[in-house]
Amino acid sequence: MNLESLYREEWRRVLATTVRLTGDFNLSEEAVQDAFVAALEQWPRDGAPANPYAWLVSAARNRVVDQLRRRARFRDRQTEIAQLTALEESVLDLSEAAMVDDQLRLIFTCCHPAIALDAQVALTLRTVCGLTTEEIARGFLVPVPAMAQRLVRVKRKIREAGLPFAVPPRERLGERLAAVMLVVYLVFTEGYAATSGKVWIRRQLCEEAIRLGRLLCELIPRNPELRALLALMLLHDSRRVARAGPDEEIITLEEQNRELWDQREIAEGLPLLESALRDGASGVYALQAAIAALHARAARVEHTDWAQIAGLYGVLLRKQPSPVVELNRAAAVAMAEGPSRGLELIDAIETKGDLAGYHLLPAARADLLRRDGRWREAAEAYRQALSLVANDPERRYLNRRLAEVEGLA
Amino acid sequence: MEYLLLIYGNEADVAKMTPADHAAMYGEFGRFNQSIQDSKNYIAGHQLQDVATATTVRVRDGKRMVTDGPFAETREQLGGYYLIQAKDLDEALAIAERIPSARWGSVEVRPLVTRHPG
Question: The pTM is what?
Answer without folding.
Answer: 0.86
